[in-house]
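Marked as duplicate of an earlier ticket. Keeping the data here for the record.
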Amino acid sequence: MIFETGLFLGKIPYIKSGAGSQNIVFFYGGSAFLMGLAESGLKNYLDVFQEYVPEGYTYYILGYEESPVRQYNLDQIADDFAQIVKEMGGAAAVVGISFGGFVAIRFAARYPEMTERLVLLISACQFSVNGKMKVDHMLDLANNEHFYDLIKEYRLLFRRPSFNWLAKFMIWKDKANILKKLKPSPAIQCSLAEIFSEDVYKNINYLREIRAKTLIIGGTRDQFFGVDEFKITAEKIPRAKLWLFENETHMLPIERKSDVSKIVKEFIAGS
């Protein structure tokens, strides 16, 4: 697969693939704060992203600034991404994945003219109670520099126990290499503290400002977002539809890739 990597605005890492006349932009999840897109191995999974892209689209995956020189909050990230989308041509279909959905909510509310359609994939306006507990635990791991355990918290989220065992083995097998690729400790700690702050819970105030047709997709057993959070998000966005997969977890886009990608592609293409 042919792809391009680089930095937008001299600071935002991206991966680009495809040659269509329309653009789709993926706002990546919180794991991009642990290591850069180039180091994360994400390029090995571009075929997964390709499954979510309708014919005739070029797609971009955006990461996050490694060492921001100012407070790095959701509004600032959304403003940076707006500059990037403007450089691309002025408008795009936006897919916010997990934490990326928080950014996508701010982006769509603040820049309606740039948001052709919005997909919140395994994401809602705020964490569930259980999700908040999990996030607090992850912040403790980061602050105590237990990064190996932090990586496992991010990756061992499959519904199938066998997948979790396999993922755990692969993390253990590649432990030294994974830890070597992590961003510097202060960058990880500061970024996570900012993005998982109380500012996240202001997202609910932005929902009614979203004008784009919106699709929200999640699993009923998601470890970060509960059914109530998915429903509240859908109810408060004026043109939103909700699609819940029974008993699926935060790894829904991978474990049910064929089903979910078909829904996303048809929605973005206007079906």
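See parent ticket for discussion. The chain has a mean pLDDT of 90.
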